[in-house]
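Our preliminary data section would be incomplete without showing what the modeling component actually yields. Below, a chain of 302 amino acids is followed by its predicted structure, encoded as tokens that our downstream tools consume directly.
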Amino acid sequence: MTKATRGIYAAAVSPFRADGSLDADKLIAYCRHLMADGGCDGVAPTGTTGEGNSIAMADRLALPAAFKAAGMPTDRVIFGTGAPAAGDAVALTKAAVAAGYTNVLVLPPFYYKNVSDDGLYAYIARIIDAVGEEALRIYLYHFPQVSMTPYSVDLVLRLKKDFGATIAGLKDSSGDFSQSKAFADATGGVDGDFDIYPSNEAMVFDALDAGCAGIISGSTNAFAAKVQRALKATGEAREAAHAAVKAARATASKYSLMAGMKQIEAWRTGDDTWTRMAPPLVPLSAAEQQNLRADLAALEEA
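Predicted structure:
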């Protein structure tokens, strides 16, 4: 299967060693957990929640081969391979494809602002041409409030028209459901074989109804099982389960998402090294940890 399995994905957090390097073995074990007891249909490592752009290039290049050696399923992993330099994005994408992970999530080149659609088109075209692999599937990563370099609906349609199945979908981290729906309406969504993933699991039912393929979220590191329960429930039980998803997402949004998800994983495993962050990000403060514990307890009591 070339295209990634549709469903609920976690933008997986990244474990670091004391020297700041990525602990690939620990990340692989964590991704196994997410796709088993964690309730995820798949994982998206080295994205925003995974501090991907703060991970050393050497570590990012080596990661797909490590996933392959560990036997991680190729249709349930979407590696983040975007970078400000097109050459770096090419190298990261080649590394993923060489290891069999043909589904990649590509941020726009985010250093320069107010660039044209023609410039962004040239960036994606260069990746496709340089990789030169028919099986490549690119998911455009639309995160305008961070990258400040949006993928417009017109550009998405232009790329899909010119590159066909290679432009497989889009992750919409705008947080604005109307934006996700605009992409779905323009492309046909799953009916048009274009897989759109909003980043907020609280909107999962609206997203699926609009023709989206699922969710890729940072907070599903901790709460994917709640989403799966909501998807399987019916009637009043479904409404209650969806309310629990919304409450969990609201709780996650009160804290730095990366630091909060890492703190939850540290508590789950009893391994405080999970709280290590790549500068300039920092762990939760003692007060924030105390508040998060109380918030999590309240979620379980609700």
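The mean pLDDT is 97. The longest strand covers residues 137-142. Preliminary results of this kind motivate Aim 1 of the renewal.
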